Amino acid sequence: MDTIRFEHDTDDGFYRLVKRRVDRYFERTGKSRYADRALLFKALVFSGLMVGSYALILAHPLPNWTLLPFAFVFGTATLLISINIGHDAAHHVLFRSAFWNDVVQGVSFGLLGVSAYLWRMRHTRSHHIFPNVNGCDIDIDENPFVRLSPNQPWRRHFQFQHLYAPLAYVFVALYTVVWQDFAYLFKRNLANMTDIQHPPHQYAIFIVAKLFYFGVVLAVPMAVLPLPWWQVLVGYLTMKAFASLVFVFLLIGTHFSDVTEFPTVGSDGSVGRTWAEHNLATACDWAPHSRIAHFVAGGVNAHACHHLFPNVSHAHYRAIAAIIAETAAETGTPYNTLSLAGIVRSHFRFLRRMGRKPGTTVRCKDSASPRIAATRMPGRAGERASTAGDA
């Protein structure tokens, strides 16, 4: 793999200016970069919903038809715990202690059935390094279902992906639990990560966590509830499908939209922009100043902020998002922001454009721009660069 580099930021460049202002924010308020009491309150709210709904399912004091709504509450609450609490812990900004961050992330992701270790590895060591760059960002690795980058090969069925995508999205969570985690555990090369070696104890943790998860969501309800096993299984699958859609529509448009960019490969290994400009160009915020969005989405809605300041808890993202918006306007740096409805519409416009056969005149806003270059990944991204903008 060739050396990858960003352009240098100037003393009066966007990132240096925004970083100085964020530093002043912490100095002025006396706050640390870690979580505050508001996150403790959110943790209590979502944990209460999770435990309460699970207890009501097992106690079964109400008619059978109420079990599914309670399952939806349980599935959504566990998801929101991971997004709001587990994500901060994965970046070690929930507590000052790395140990307790790892414990909280492990528990919160374990309740989703997802390997905390593997998720943190691919999120912090791949996605955050070069977002939206083919061959370097594991989140845009090719898949046979949907085309999520103009730098990926086109297949005939992709022309319908904007129509069938919601059906595919209902399986995202289940796919991660029963297939993707297992595949990632045994792969030695993933995107920009090569010769991956896992500590032996992680295999044991992986197995124990999966057994614990399926015990909680399937074995215990099957043993306790006066229902046939297949009804419990159908209820679980329906709950997981619902949680998948919540996850997808909160998150997917933050990178896969018709306002974000997908850099192509430059011959010199340069991305053509500074690190901060690249992260702004490849992300899109939705309602980053909304208290409600911030409470529910846990900073996912301030996604550019998260990529620029991954070592800061999302408890501070509303304030930092305002600083980013102001600084971007002053420096003329593009900053993508939409509403939640707007980002969902933008995502489906993007899917439709990515589904068009290369060679058409319809193009995304992004990737054909000569101002952007990206990592050269041998035999992958360099070969696909010619497809950029074809969609």
Describe this structure in words.
Helix content is 55%, strand content 3%. It is mainly alpha-helical and 391 residues long. A two-stranded parallel sheet has the order 1-2. The chain has a two-stranded parallel sheet with strand order 3-4. It is globular. Mean pLDDT is 89; it is low at 361-391.
Helices and strands in order:
Layout: E1 5-7, H1 14-29, H2 37-59, H3 67-90, H4 98-110, H5 116-127, H6 161-169, H7 172-186, H8 200-224, H9 229-251, E2 270-274, H10 275-281, E3 285-286, H11 291-297, H12 303-308, H13 317-331, E4 337-338, H14 340-354, H15 381-384
Parallel strand pairs: 1-2, 3-4
Helix pairs in contact: 1-13, 2-3, 3-4, 3-9, 6-14, 8-9
Quick tags:
mainly alpha, two-stranded parallel ribbon, globular, 4 strands, 391 residues, disordered C terminus, 15 helices, two-stranded parallel sheet
Short description:
This protein is mainly α.
- The ordered string of helix (H) and strand (E) elements is EHHHHHHHHHEHEHHHEHH
Q: Which structural class is indicated by helix and strand composition?
A: mainly alpha
- Helix fraction by DSSP (H/I, runs of at least 4): 40-55%
Rg is: 21 Å
